[in-house]
Design brief:
This is TetR family transcriptional regulator. The protein has a domain of 132 residues: Tetracycline Repressor, domain 2 (Orthogonal Bundle). 73% of the residues lie in helices and 0% in strands. It contains nine helices and no strands. Helix 4 packs parallel to helix 7 and helix 6 packs across helix 7. The longest helix has 27 residues. The relative contact order is 0.12.
């Protein structure tokens, strides 16, 4: 007869997400996971597969909790540009104040793993595609509502913001001058004034 799990896999996955986010994939050993999660190594393997599979599930969990919030913020009825400007401020605020400097798990994964891990790269690209599509939709709505000029290219503007947002997150990881992020945010805001 199979034993029932003596732990909540959902809670364990959340703790794994937090550890990977704090330390990164490479710096988190299986021993670290076992200690932090409070379950046996065999239970980690039986429930999640290996470290890599656990990391990918943790990254998926992160995306499930962050991406929909962005889409919701950008798809509210009414004028679209105030939501875009609020998102610019949100990215700048998060990049400038995160302590310890955990950054964004998607950006951290892109920097650490995406060049050599196709599964991690797929999840990173999926998140960036989602952000770009959400921004494109909002900016298309803004153009249709005459908040942007008729010749504005919503997709190109969305891609510009995607790059600015990810750059803010990279700079936010380092002990860089916060003024750089604020200046970039002000310039991005000026595009949508």
């Amino acid at each position: 007869m199979a034993r029932t799990k003596e732990f909540d896999p959902d809670a364990v996955l959340q703790r794994a997400l937090e550890l990977f986010w704090e330390r990164g994939y490479e710096a988190t050993s299986m021993a670290d996971l076992v200690e932090h999660l409070g379950i046996a190594r065999a239970s980690v393997y039986a429930t999640f597969g290996g470290k890599h599979e656990l990391f990918l599930r943790a990254l998926e969990r992160y995306l499930e909790t962050t991406d929909p919030k962005i889409a919701e913020a950008l798809s509210q009825p009414g004028p679209a540009l105030p939501a875009v400007r609020a998102l610019i401020d949100r990215y700048a605020d998060e990049a400038g104040r995160e302590r310890p400097r955990l950054g964004c798990l998607v950006v951290n994964t892109a920097v650490e793993l995406a060049a050599r891990d196709t599964e991690a790269a797929r999840l990173v690209e999926s998140s960036w595609n989602f952000l770009e599509a959400s921004l494109t939709s909002a900016l298309t709505r803004a153009r249709a509502q005459a908040e942007l000029p008729p010749d504005a290219d919503p997709r190109a503007l969305a891609r510009l913001l995607l790059v600015i947002f990810q750059g803010m997150r990279v700079l936010g990881r380092a002990p860089a001058e916060e003024g750089r992020i604020r200046d970039a945010a002000r310039q991005a805001q000026a595009l949508f004034a």
